[in-house]
């Protein structure tokens, strides 16, 4: 009996300090300032790439025998991040029969927050870039790859000002890494917490996701961008022709890991607002929600209680009308329940939100891009007069410049331009030669 109690205590302590979630092709390990040393084992039988969101704390990867670490560090967190903290370069680990050990040291009775993402070399979408937003800065992720993954230990990530030429139903946002997206393998893939209903919807929506790792699927390979900022919690934003999302914390939409441990606490949410809408569409994904943790939703005089232990969906659509909405979820029933709500506002009417106003502090933006010509710029996520994102503006400017150049050329050269001048000159020369020969024959 004594031994059993000791074993139970050991696993309880290990669970608290480790906070590890295992996906089919990856592992996510979190630290949250717990005073115990962090030691987490990660399997890497096929080789893997390690990413971490910070290089400023004392931590690294060690060889292990599956139970305990031995030897010196293979690489520290600073070496994993590399020279650019916004886009950690990652570190390649060779295949190993035994697990590697992620270890961080305990200084002054506490450790710093961190997120480690270990993904197999055999994982899908391995060309995906990984970014880490910096606190108090809006980061503009400007590139060409279809997928972008973001690591963060903040309470939430705000996504806004999507820009691109998106296929129908894109972009999508997943509360997970790039290796388990919804179009991969049935039974081992996750559903998105946001799916755009239109181009303008993506451009005008401000969306908050509460997960240590988030992946954006733009739907195509080509020029696109999105602005991202770390936030301290949920900030509901509602405007015409946009969407808003409400999510629990963690890896929402992944039924095979919904009850695994993570460091975020499930803070509930509630919102009350009134609006006149041309349309109002609501979609809910929920899992592991028992009656005490039910989602409460009221639309005018109709009330709904949503809960289920199994992965389930709840959808409601309304035509034009006036709506009074109350939405609430407790979020204090443990870590296993998860829920994602998306509401689409098809309206040109103003929205009255209660009980609080949403505000963002002005902040500096950092541009992360594949183009060296892009520069840092300041963005305001609440500005409704500037919902068109910068890359769209650049594309429009480039088209305007082409039109201007074409117009200038025509104005300067008249009707004939380029090769047409060459052809006209040749014809004139031939006619002049023929006229000259005829005149010469007349005088002979």
Query: Radius of gyration in whole Å, from Cα?
Result: 28 Å
- The total of helices stands at 5
State the oligomer: single chain
Q: What is the count of structural domains? A: 2
Helix percent reads: 10-25%
Beta content comes to: 35-45%
Across the major sheet, the strand order is: 1-2-9-4-7
Signal peptide: 1-19
Keywords: Membrane, Signal, Transmembrane, Transmembrane helix
Region (Disordered): 352-388
Transmembrane segments: 418-436
Written description of the protein model:
The chain crosses the membrane at residues 418-436. Residues 352-388 are annotated as: Disordered. Residues 365-382 have a biased composition (Low complexity). Helices cover 17% and strands 37% of the residues. Strand 1 and strand 2 (26-32) form a beta hairpin. It is flat and about 110 Å long. It has a five-stranded antiparallel sheet with strand order 1-2-9-4-7. Strands 10-12-17-14-15 form a five-stranded mixed sheet, with no helix packed on it. It has two domains: 2-120, Jelly Rolls, CATH 2.60.120.380; 129-397, no CATH class. With 444 residues, it is an alpha+beta fold. The chain contains five helices and 28 strands.
Salient structural properties:
five-stranded antiparallel β-sheet, 444 residues, transmembrane, membrane, disordered N terminus, five-stranded mixed β-sheet, 5 helices, Jelly Rolls, flat, 2 domains, alpha+beta
